[in-house]
Amino acid sequence: MYKGTKYYKEKFYTYPAVLDDSENEKGTYTVTFPDVPGAIGEGKGISEAIASGKEGLESILIASNEPYTNSPIEKVKKDNPNKIVTYILADMEEAREITKPATVKKNTTIPRDLAIKGEKAGVNFSKLLTDALRVKLS
């Protein structure tokens, strides 16, 4: 888990999803989430569509950093007759792990006295630089 960065508090979130094959080849479903704009998936067959929808949902949730309000599934079903409406689970721990940014090594020069004091104090220089850059760039 990334410390110092705001992320979802819950491990799992579920959202109503709409699986629709009316504009595709029969059996190829587009997956949308009425409560999560931009979350979309597509797949041949229901299983593939749900897996793709899950990935799309998790990507948007990770990027937005905010949970969305859930509509009651009965309302989503009423608004989408003749379509498959089901819940799709977002596993935020798994999604964060998959989307975890890679790290790169950067050499830097600092005054000697600060290096000595930092080492004695047990400062993690990589973490300090990372945190400072996040603050500076936000």
Strand tally, please? 4
Q: Class by helix and strand content?
A: alpha+beta
Radius of gyration: 21 Å
Q: Characterize the quaternary organization of these chains.
A: single chain
Number of domains: 2
Spell out the helices and strands N to C: EEEHHEHHH
Architecture per CATH nomenclature, i.e. the level-2 architecture of the largest domain: 2-Layer Sandwich
Protein architecture, described:
The protein is α+β, with helices and mostly antiparallel strands and 138 residues long. α1 crosses α3. Residues 1-7 have low confidence and may be disordered. The chain has five helices and four strands; from the N terminus they run βββααβααα. It has helices at residues 46-64, 73-79, 92-99, 112-120, 125-137, and strands at 12-20, 28-32, 40-44, 84-91. Strands 3-2-1-4 form a four-stranded antiparallel beta sheet. It has two domains: 12-99, Double Stranded RNA Binding Domain (2-Layer Sandwich); 102-138, no CATH class. It is elongated. InterPro entries: HicB-like, TTHA1013/TTHA0281-like. This is HicB family protein. Pfam families: HicB_lk_antitox.
